[in-house]
Amino acid sequence: MSHCLAGLLLVLGVTGCAGLSAQRDTAAGTSALTHGDYATAIARLHAALARNPRSSVAANNLASAYFASGRAREGWPYVRQALIIAPRNRPAHANLLRFFAELVHQGELGDGVGVDTVREWLGAPDSVTADADGALWRYGPVGLRVRGGRLSGQATLDPPPTRRRAHICQVCRSEF
Asked: pTM for this structure?
């Protein structure tokens, strides 16, 4: 009996320490992000996610750090991860919408782009709904209309959580 109790306490202690370390890394990464130290933010937020891969806040802030440092393509999987973990994460929704807007602005995701390019940039869609006009590929709150193997439109499927243009750091709610 005492061995079982000691084992349980050891597991709880290790889990608690990992959770506390993840919180510390998230806080340190978020602080670095708000101060413009993107390299430190990326390193600390990666460490937080390694300890707690279910942290929507750490994933979204890591995406924000990548976006802010001009590495949007590297940040994309993390904003998606944040929304998969917590579909109602409003700052992650805002960041995902901004990311799409930037890709459209840069000409990466305009009408006529082939689906292979879309998959290369964004990965597999969260869902695909076929209809008489082709298909709707859904990535979080954004839907991409696909006809004949090419994009033929984009729509925001969920109302945008904010109209501000800056990336939003979750926890501190800072913009940069």
From this structure: 0.74
